[in-house]
Amino acid sequence: DPYARLLLEALKQSGCTVFNDRHFSCENCDGCVSGGFDAATSQIVLCQNNIRQQSHMNRVVTHELIHAFDHCRAHVDWFKNVKHLACSEIRAANLSGDCTLMNEIARFKFGLKGHHQTCVRDRAIRSILAVRKVSKETAEKAVDEVFDACFNDLEPFGRIPHSKADAKRAYRDFQNRDRYYANL
């Protein structure tokens, strides 16, 4: 998967090499949660009882790898700073493919103008509420306060990958970054 390959390489370049046997765990989870990032262990949890398709698993892995990348490069305070959590959830919803048109149609949610941003905002709020005991108003306020900056932070993709083709281009660009900067 080009999304995961790019994120794994970016994590490695940031000094946070991911090892499959150490940093991924498949578990049975309560409710309809598909996965999570455990900051205390730097481990991605995949909820094997709630993931039924490869494409869904790819999105969950990508979403959680974005959290791992943020944890590595930005030293996110997951537990005390709801704005930090909001920012990472915005980035994960924006860059993982969670809000592609096809996924939104499958959820019976679609619109034309500004729909991607609306989806990212709504999914970030839902994710915060799923992992923290805060009010909906607190989650909405945190997302609103950091939305523009975090929505526009496209690292390490450099673009919003709306498809696998976009992710492949982003991966190719990422691999060639050093060659570009070396010629300046």
Automatic annotation (TrEMBL):
GO terms for biological process: mitochondrial protein processing; mitochondrial proton-transporting ATP synthase complex assembly. It is an enzyme of class 3 (hydrolase). GO terms for molecular function: metal ion binding; metalloendopeptidase activity. It comes from Erpornis zantholeuca. It comes from the Eukaryota. Its EC number is 3.4.24.-. GO terms for cellular component: mitochondrion. It holds the Pfam family Peptidase_M76. Belongs to the peptidase M76 family. This is Mitochondrial inner membrane protease ATP23. Keywords: Hydrolase, Metal-binding, Metalloprotease, Protease.
